[in-house]
Amino acid sequence: MAGLELLSDQGYRLDGRKATELRKVQARMGVFAQADGSAYLEQGNTKALAVVYGPHEIRGARSRALHDRAIINCQYSMATFSTAERKRRPHGDRKSTEMSLHLKQTFEAAVLTQLYPRSQIDIYVKILQSDGGNYSVCVNAATLAVIDAGIPMRDYVCACTVGFVDETSLADLCYAEESGGVSSLALALLPRGGQIALVQMDARLHQDHLDTLIEAAMTACKGVSKVLDQVVRQHLQEGSTLRE
Amino acid sequence: MLKSKTFVKKTRAGGVMKIVREHYLRDDIWCGSEACRECKQESTVLQADACIESNLCPYPHYVVPDTNVVLHQIDVLEDPVIRNVIILQTVLQEVRHRSAPVYKRLKDMIQAKEKLVYTFTNEHHRETYIEREQGESANDRNDRAIRVAVKWYSQHLKADGLKVVLLTDDQGNKEKAEENSLVVYKFDEYVKNLTANPELVDRLALSKDDKAEIISSKVLFPEHLPLSKIQSGIKSGTFLQGTFKASRDNYLEATVFVQGDGAESTEVLIQGLQNLNRAVHQDVVAVQLLPRNQWVSPSSVVLQDDGAAKDDDMDEDEEEKALRISAAEAAGKPTGKIVGIIKRNWRPFCGMLNVSQIKESTRHLFTPADRRIPRIRIETRQASTLVGQRIMVAIDGWPKNSRYPNGHFVRSLGSAGEKGTEEAVLLLEHDVPHQAFSQNVLSFLPKMPWGITPEDMVKRQDLRHLTVCSVDPPGCTDIDDALHCRELENGNLEVGVHIADVSHFIRPGNALDKEAANRGTTVYLCGKRIDMVPELLSSNLCSLRSNVERLAFSCIWEMNHNAEILKTQFTKSVINSKASLTYAEAQMRIDDTNKKDDITESLRGLNKLAKILKRKRIENGALTLSSLEVRFHIDSETHDPIDLQTKELMETNSMVEEFMLLANISVAQKIYDEFPDCALLRKHPAPPPSNYDILLKAAKSMNVEIHTDSAKALADSLDVAKVDGFSYFNTLLRILATRCMMQAVYFCSGMDSDFHHYGLASPIYTHFTSPIRRYADIIVHRLLAVAIGADITYPDLMDKHKQSALCNNLNYRHKMSQYAQRASVAFHTQLFFKSRGILNEEGFVLFVRKNAIIVLIPKFGLEGTVFFDSKDKAGPSLVFDEEGPTLKVEQTTFHIFDKVKVTISLDDSNIQHQKIRMALTEPVIPGVSVAAPDVEPQAKKPKVDH
Ligand SMILES: [Zn+2]
Is the Cβ of A230 closer than 8 Å to some Cβ of chain B? Predict the structure, then answer.
């Protein structure tokens, strides 16, 4: 039989969502006391932990320092237990290195690095459980951690993975959809200004569909930003009540 | 966003992997009923007043069929009487996994507005989702899910005075439903009580209880292995998986095609009922090879399963024995037995009823028109009306203690032997889509009156001033090509091939495009054409008729007088053809030296160049093969064939052909250069050497040598093959050579590396010149239009996988249309001979078989078999020598190419398989040959010479 039916004629996806609906997003900020900032975020069954240190002095080779802004150092890893088959190498493989680089580029676009010349900001993200959209979940978790660390940003960076199937854009793909032959695209957005921090796509897609897909991704990112905003506000409220 | 939805995790363990998936439950899934006031739905499907004339359920109600009812009773469910149906998502998914054809039909049914079928997504509804319980099988869980959904529906609609009826054939499910106080009926019980359409009862598939009655307790066949065992057997190599192809000539024999690694595939021979083990043509099966000492070779005996129903005691033993003896003579081929069925590929079959000898009986045998399909036992109360009609029957199952599969009546096509019925049969049997175009499709046609607008002229060259003309067979209304030739100032020649610009009218992805893509080709039957695109396009707007302005796609070359191409240009254009000629008219103009007008000069230029092109092509090793094409003169009033002649080829035929080939090659190169990954091309593989065996043997018997190392060698040796005093020999040899060839196929350049066209000796080839009647050409037009910047691309055009899938469909449709065409010629040949009585004609032996010779009658292009053995009486002594091959009948030996005389008559003793019967008159063999008929043409019975 032909694989899975990703979108039924009634408009439901494999897990019961409609095309534009996101998975359930749940998050907590400040989960670690030692770090400068931290956050835990679940987007459906994909779960990520982000930890931020800095800004602090450059460690290691001083020559890397930039005189007009801070450098951002990102490290992405996956827990060995995060996928159905145990992972042999949690970080340092080609995929993780690429992902680290993408995260770095994303946050260089969002963080006001010029405020901290000659310093460094470290962002560590670990996927604890993987069910599709790893990059997006990492970005969203890291955003919360950066905010928790009190590092100023232009705006939230929100990311979402979208796919295209049967002339329809699907928002926030899960693993079954990502592996089911959908051309997927990951996009990170600064929602208020509508600036795109990063677009990443490996699959082939006809040019005619690109605009609709990016449009769908931006809408989804805006949806994510609303949820993150709520999490931050709630966190602030809790924090202020504690202090009183 | 998802606040309202609670959320459970569904864990599925498959193999060693544990897969965790989210499963969202919603409360915004509505019931789809017009009567409901609770749901906030925008549109509804199911009627408030859902009544059907029934003794059982006279109240308004909706029906919910379970999975097995959908799978087995789809013929009844499709009837327009049954409306207001709820299909649960659980059912839809199960059907999708279990039968692709039924799933397709179910989806069509859901889409048909007048059927009022609503799909309820119960698996994602908060109140109807259930989890699998400990120890519960997946099937039981699904049955329970169906019951829960029905329960929810009945409560949901109670206030609105509507009932919901569960239909199932499963006794256990029914009892459990009754415990839950649901309204539930057996499907046949429900249908038998419908007063609206009593005829529906015949279409019911047999349920399990009925089957038990019919079949004897005796087990006739070995058990089929369960799928799990088959899979492990295939993995370990004990079994092979392949497609079952029944033999057309011998019902006790079949072949299984096993696809090996790569392109390699093997054939496994299956002989005898036990080994065939209930596999039906086209099923995907598992075979086990027999030990090498039991291997046999395919028999050349023709065996047909006819006569009265064999009541389950295998009296075929004798026939099987005959088979084995004849088979044991030669070294064996891999032989095996069917151990299990991986996938059934049953479809409804056309055929006729053999009414049971017992008058009151309601069980009858059905004989399919396709000889490869076994006879099917059906139950019907209308046998007396169905006698002499062509009907359709579907198979329900084949229990191991039944000699024949069980099935049910689907519908009647009309009286056998009538032209309309027979045409319907041959279209259905060859899977030719022939329904009238739907309103949706027609809505994409241009609005009339149509004219060329200034927007059309952007990116188009105005070629209306050129002296373009078309040359086609007489009566052609779908003219897709036109030509011109003129001398340029520099002394060179400009030659243009102008092809109807169909892709201008058929835009990618709309309903019209999809319909054409599915049809794939126009099918030409005798006196009837089944169009690929609606008539407005095929016979009017796209047809390049004379003296009207038409849009075209032009391929224009600058050539010198040696027909060497100096420059090639492709452009969209507007032309105004100056004349639509027939081949004969064009020929007359060329030959008439007094004519000096532009059209004639243009034709002469073309003709001259075409001769040079042809010569060059043949020097390169292109083959010219023969097949006798027959055409009928059809009486314009009765539409009966009145005369029959083989197609005559004129110089102008080959003139047009030559330029079409040239255009196709030029375009193929262009689109491949531009789109190396997704050009749609056509290739013709070289045949494997063994294909030529029969040709070599036949030629050798006449002391002629044929070389088959390359197409050129073959072409050259065919050219010199001559036998004194036997002028027809060369044609016969070419006919034989044609039979050795492989089928040419469409393919996508990104999916293949071998592009060679063997027959045309061209490294690359495609189809560009007939977009009105071939869909491949439309795709090629689109690719070329993008390549020259005249049109834009669209996603599917650039997707090599989608294009490859399209090629598969096109190849299938082309093959089927050829078969349908041949079947139509055969049918008209029969009509023709029916009116002629018995004829005595001269023919040549084309093939020699173990018990027959196959004779070609050049006068009619007709091939027929002369059998030397018969069932009723002792046959003559037959000695077959495979080396020759020769067949010695009594004292006379037959070789290939022997000249014989035969009588031709129509054998209508079996109305379903009316056939042309040939009997030998010369050479005279006592006891075998018959006397030549009297000159009086209306004599009916051949006189047998004893
Ligand atoms: Zn409702």
Answer: no
Interchain contact A209–B (C-beta under 8 A)? yes
In a domain, B883, yes or no: yes
Average pLDDT over residues A164-185: 86
CB–CB contact A22 B2 (8 Å): yes
Cα A24 from Cα A42, distance rounded (Å)? 8
Q: Residue B96: its chain A contacts at CB < 8 A? A: 1, 5
Q: Mind telling me how many Å the CA of B100 is from chain A's nearest CA?
A: 7
Biggest alpha carbon–alpha carbon distance for chain B: 96
Q: Which domains does chain A have, with CATH numbers?
A: 25-243 (3.30.230.70)
**In this structure, are B628 and B511 located in the same domain?**
yes
A174 has a chain B CB within 8 A of its CB:
yes
Please count the structural domains in chain B: 5
**Looking up tokens 């070995």, which residue turns up?**
B222
Based on the domain organization, do B463 and B410 belong to the same domain?
A: no
A183 in contact with chain B, both atoms CB, cutoff 8 A: no
How far, in Å, is the centroid of ligand 1 from the Cα of B4? 18
Please answer yes or no on whether A8 and B89 come within 8 Å at the CB atom: yes
- Residues in chain B closer than 8 A to A17 (CB atoms): 2, 24
CA distance B21 to B11: 6
**CATH code for the domain of B191:** 3.40.50.1010
Distance CA B767, CA B763 (A): 14
In a shared domain, residues B384 and B459: no
pLDDT (0 to 100) of residue B645: 54
Structural domain includes residue B320: yes
Residue B5: pLDDT band (50, 70, 90) is very low
Residue B913 sits in a domain whose CATH number is: 2.40.50.140
Q: How far apart are CA B523 and CA B531, in angstroms?
A: 7
Domain match, B580 and B455 both: yes
Residue B323: domain span = 227-343
Which 3-state string (H, E, C) describes B817-865?
A: HHHHHHHHHHHHHHHHHHHHCCEEEEEEEEEECCCEEEEEECCCCEEEE
Q: For position B941, what pLDDT does the model report?
A: 41
- Give the global pTM: 0.69
Size of interface A-B (CB pairs under 8 A): 66
| Interface-testing mutation among A9, A10, A175, with chain B (most B C-beta atoms within 10 A) | A10
Residue B767 near residue B682 (C-beta atoms within 8 A): yes
Q: Kindly state whether residue B814 falls inside one of the protein's structural domains.
A: no
Host H or E run for residue B559: strand B549-559
Residue B430 has pLDDT above 60, yes or no: yes
Q: Are residues B485 and B553 in the same domain?
A: yes
Would you call B89 and A45 a contact, using CB atoms and an 8 Å cutoff?
A: no
C-alpha–C-alpha distance, residues B597 and B912, integer Å: 56
Instruction: Give the distance (Å) from ligand 1 centre to CA of residue B145.
Output: 18
CA gap A240, B574 in Å, rounded: 78
B771 domain-assigned: no
How many Cα atoms within 13 Å fall on the side-chain side of residue B652?
Answer: 22
State the pLDDT at residue B260.
66
By the CB < 8 Å criterion, does A8 face chain B? yes
A119 CA distance to ligand 1 middle (Å)? 62
Interface of B with A in 101-140 (CB under 8 A): 107, 110, 119, 121, 123-124
Same domain (yes/no): B175, B128: yes
- Lowest pLDDT segment from A96-100, B736-740, B864-868, B931-935: B931-935
Provide ipTM, 2 decimals: 0.87
A17/B2 CB distance under 8 A = yes
Please state, in angstroms and rounded to a whole number, the distance separating the CA atoms of residues B499 and A18.
46
Q: Which of A108-122, B65-79, B642-656 has the lowest mean pLDDT?
A: B642-656
- Quick one: B411 and B374 in the same domain? yes
Domain match, B448 and B358 both: no
